[in-house]
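G., the chain you wanted modeled:
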Amino acid sequence: MNQPAKQFILTIEGVTKSFDGFKAINDLNFYMDEGELRVIIGPNGAGKSTMLDLITGRTRPDRGKVEFGRDTDLTALNEYQINRLGIGRKFQTPSVYVDHTVYNNILLSLEGSRSVWSTLFSRTTSEQRDRIQEVAKTIGLADRLEAKAGFLSHGQKQWLEIGMLLAQNPRLLLVDEPAAGMSDEETAKTGELLMSLAGKHSIIVIEHDMVFVRQIARTVTVLHQGSILCEGTVDEVQANERVIQVYLGRKKRGDTP
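Predicted structure as tokens:
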């Protein structure tokens, strides 16, 4: 009996993107399973952020295919349309409404929310309140719902922004260097949070901190000069001869290979 073809939530094939003659992405092929947590590493200039820009529609490829789910061509859509499909992106610097409470930050992000005015000054439903409580519990901020976001620690702001993405019920989360600037305790809690979300959501994490990568990663993708250098477990990647050759002299304890 024939087995059905494997379904990827994200397919990138033959993608190239140049800026003023520099190939930031060079014939990139990347495949990701539904519910997977994938970690992408590589030095500055490897093409990590450009790859996320291509997925979210911030930039378009010169050639190649970026497909979401079975047959949705992301290159034909703008950023707003791609976000509506269920693709959420968290940048390295947290972007929250610092003058609003944790509760209102999540409320403003709920799926189907419209303007700030209509969202904050219309009556919230019991379903919305339940969803806000659920998200706050997931991100570890259930006891800080009435606190203004501006008074949160750096790590808590990062968790809140992840919660704001979760409030939109995304299928795919793109998370850029979530451990940057965090304490060891916050980093460990962030890893636990991301691992708890895997399976319910598909997650791509870009990261440099290899201690954090080792905590959360099942599969690591190494980008180099806009292409995939290798993929595998953390141990396989760190032992890979090509990785060692490319990053010779860069291997320090806790750093990207």
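The beta strands are 8-19, 22-33, 37-41, 63-68, 72-73, 87-90, 172-176, 202-206, 219-224, 227-232.

Shout if anything looks off.
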